[in-house]
Amino acid sequence: VVTGGGTGIGAATAMLFARHGADVVLASRKVENLERVKANVEAATGRQAHVVATDVRDVEQCEHLIDESLATFGRVDVLVNNAGGSHSYTFEDWNAERFQNMLDLNLKSAFVLSQRVAPHMVERGSGAIVNISSGAAVSALPIHTAYGAAKAGLENLTQNFAAALAPHGIRVNCVRVGAIK
What we know:
Elements: E1 2-3, H1 8-19, E2 24-28, H2 31-45, E3 49-53, H3 59-73, E4 78-81, H4 96-124, E5 127-134, H5 145-165, E6 170-177
Parallel strand pairs: 1-2, 2-3, 4-5, 5-6
Helix pairs in contact: 1-2, 3-4, 4-5
């Protein structure tokens, strides 16, 4: 399962997994992007790609994504919490609503999706959760205040989930990316 699977890191990750023999579930709000990636993955690899329109800021949609992934393929071996992003506001223009939106998109979604998929991985005794972070987690970027805070929280969440799930054979890791094309 790859969130943010319609563009950039998510699309490239889905293609890489499929090239290594995985069927993939692509999740994002923009179905047209997902359909394009699905077609590319299936044409290039012969693997299945399943599209699930998902706004990861919505708990019910996150739960539906995992449930549909399990119903479609019978298991989830890897969850990639890649969906995310930021808006640029001056310090004075950040407000509680904008801050919460960034937390929901970049942090809460990873918590909800990981919590939903973990019991299935624990039952099988294997699985992996990969969280995509950013250099903003450890840098002062005043116009990205909430994004940096959310990504720092994601890195801490990763460490805590890794400690909790390692005894069950589940790896939880975080990739901190910098600028990408």
